[in-house]
Write a structure and sequence with these properties.
Blueprint: H1 2-23, H2 99-108, E1 115-125, E2 136-150, E3 154-165, E4 170-185, E5 188-195, H3 215-220, E6 231-238, E7 244-250, E8 266-268, E9 273-275, E10 283-284, E11 294-303, E12 306-316, E13 322-324, E14 329-331, E15 334-346, E16 349-360, E17 375-387, E18 390-401, H4 404-410, E19 421-433, E20 438-447, E21 452-462, E22 467-478, E23 493-501
């Protein structure tokens, strides 16, 4: 019985298939799945083939297969004008050429990106100076531009200042940096060109830093960065696990920018009085390329939480270190310096010690009063925070003249004798207020042996991310005109400035 029912059901299914095939055509495939070309349909199982004499019934209206026809017209206002309109910028298809975008990127990113600042300052004496015809000590507009360019293992840097100086009534270009750094390997770099170099551990006191200083900028109220003058030199650095090595070669002597009397008066021991603009100091500087050269070496490495360094220098006194009587002019005797330093954390602050021996090669016996004797120099320093955003730093500095007895015995009667020892203390106080936008600072030099002092108070306020204003003073005190700071008493000045950074 069950077998008869199953056979009847199977017969009904087969009859339904025959009726469906005979009375309905194959429905169209969804869009995108149509066969690529007409092909013969596979044969149906025996007995289910459709009759070839019958035509397929018509499809419902709108679904009839047709020959290719034109696409329906777009709504009014959307018809293309001919060429397809350009896509919005940044949405161009990948098949579009990339040249227009490349041109836009080149305009947006110039090959050199310049930044810097515009600085304007003015300063004046607050005491009378008979040796100077002008009370102004500072009056200038300065535009600094900086840029750099890097390659795979080379880097070029440029920093230049265009300055209009109202005190000297002239405009000048001061290139502070134009150097190329090349790293032939990971442990070696070579820097060639004009650059600002600094060594040592002192805070505005220098023993083994035998690179040029700008004392005119320092005393007049320019930014403290201008205390360091640029050098034309080649520097090679080799870095390793034992001892890092730096060698600086200057092919022609680079002296300090020292006091000559043109802007600041000074004591002339031969004249036994103050000298100024009318009788400026005449000098004879070594200036032969590769003969009057300088070599400086530094070896340094980290030891625990500190850094140990050894120094060597061969060249000349950076500021005039002697006098020539006929004709009367200042000279730069030959000099060698050997020194060492150690800097690291001590308690809650940072301490440093630095020493150096100045070998005055043209007066080692000390019996030429017109050339500096050899000296031993020592520096001790300590810095720590003594309050919230309030730091203090103290230094002790010693100059000890070698063969002082020979110097005194050979000194002419018309010249004042120097002390064997010169002791100097420095104190730096820095307080930050108003989210570090306001900075109050004082740097003071005090010599107990010379009984003179030099005070540098300063107030700096950051008005915005771009504007900064500041005011300060250079105050010189002393009992005598013959001491280092005492000779500049009549140059005491105040200054103010504004800077726009970009």
């Amino acid at each position: 019985m069950f077998h008869s029912i199953r056979c009847a059901l199977l017969l009904c299914v087969m009859l339904l298939c025959v009726i469906t095939v005979a009375n309905a055509s194959e429905p169209p495939l969804p869009a995108g799945l149509a066969p690529a070309a007409p092909r013969e349909e596979p044969a149906l199982p025996e007995g289910l083939e459709p009759a070839t004499s019958r035509e397929e019934p018509a499809l419902p209206e709108g679904l009839e297969p047709t020959t290719p026809r034109e696409e329906p017209a777009l709504p009014a206002g959307l018809e293309p004008a001919g060429d397809e309109p350009a896509l919005p910028e940044g949405l161009a298809p990948d098949t579009e050429p990339a040249e227009p975008m490349a041109r836009e990127e080149s305009r947006a990113a110039p090959p050199l990106d310049f930044h810097g600042f515009w600085d304007m300052r003015a300063g004046s004496r607050i005491v009378s100076d008979k040796a100077q015809s002008k009370d102004a000590t500072l009056g200038e507009m300065r535009l600094q531009l900086r840029t750099d360019k890097g390659w795979n293992n080379a880097f070029l840097e440029f920093t230049g200042d265009g300055v209009f100086d109202a005190v000297e009534e002239r405009a000048r270009l001061d290139i502070r940096q134009l150097r190329l750094t090349w790293s032939p390997m990971n442990t070696v770099d070579i820097r060639v060109g004009r650059q600002v170099l600094t060594w040592g551990t002192g805070d505005m006191l220098f023993i083994n830093d035998m690179f040029p200083k700008d004392w005119i900028s320092f005393f007049s109220g320019r930014d403290v960065e201008y205390l360091k003058a640029p050098s034309n030199a080649a520097r090679v650095g080799w870095y390793n696990d034992v001892m890092n090595v730096e060698v600086v070669y200057t092919p022609r002597f680079d002296p300090d920018r020292y006091i000559t009397g043109k802007r600041f008066s000074y004591y002339n021991p031969l004249l036994r009085r103050m000298a100024g603009r009318d009788n400026q100091q005449q000098t004879r500087e070594p200036d032969s390329w590769f003969r009057d050269d300088e070599v400086a070496v530094r070896l340094y490495r980290s030891i625990g939480n500190g850094q140990l360094a050894f120094y060597g220098y061969s060249g000349y006194w950076k500021s005039p270190g002697g006098m020539q009587l006929l004709p009367n002019r200042a000279v730069f005797p030959r000099l060698r310096v050997y020194g060492a330093s150690l800097r690291g954390a001590i308690g809650q602050g940072i301490g440093n010690i630095e020493l150096g021996y100045y070998d005055s090669r043209q007066d080692r016996r000390g019996n030429n009063p017109f050339i500096n004797n050899s000296e031993f120099r020592l520096l001790l320093g300590y810095e720590r925070e003594i309050g919230r955003e309030f730091t203090a730093a103290l230094q002790y500095y010693l100059e000890y003249m070698m063969r002082h007895g020979n110097y005194r015995d050979s000194l002419p009667f018309f010249m004042n004798a120097r002390d064997r020892d010169r002791h100097v203390f420095t104190l730096r106080l820095t307080k930050m207020l108003m989210n570090q936008n306001l900075i109050l600072s004082l740097f003071a030099y005090m010599s107990l042996s010379d009984k003179d002092a030099y005070l540098r108070p300063n107030v700096t306020y950051k008005v915005s991310d771009h504007w900064t204003v500041e005011a300060g003073a250079n105050i010189f005190l002393g009992d005598q005109k013959t001491t280092f700071f005492g000779q500049f008493q009549d140059n005491t000045n105040v200054y103010a400035g504004a800077r726009l950074a970009f």
